[in-house]
């Protein structure tokens, strides 16, 4: 089993998830995906007008 590092980049309502390993001395992305933190049909609270 290879060792890998996982990372997350959080955005408004979703996050990017990535896993990276080292292969032949160079980094290689082995997995990446977008993870939704709220339902796709919901409006992100940061995008609502003030007072809502």
Q: How would you describe this structure in keywords?
A:
rod-shaped, 52 residues, mainly beta, 3 strands, 3-stranded antiparallel β-sheet
| Total of DSSP H or I helical runs spanning 4+ residues | 0
Largest sheet: 3 strands, antiparallel
How many angstroms does the end-to-end distance come to?
49 Å
Determine the oligomeric state from the structure: single chain
Uncertain parts: none
Give the DSSP E fraction (strand runs of 2 or more residues): over 45%
Alpha-beta content class: mainly beta
Element-level helix/strand string: EEE
What do you see in this structure?
The structure is a single chain. The chain is mostly beta strands and 52 residues long. It has a three-stranded antiparallel β-sheet, with no helix packed on it.
Element layout with pairings:
Layout: E1 5-10, E2 14-23, E3 26-36
Antiparallel strand pairs: 1-2, 2-3
Short description:
The chain has 52 residues and is mainly beta.
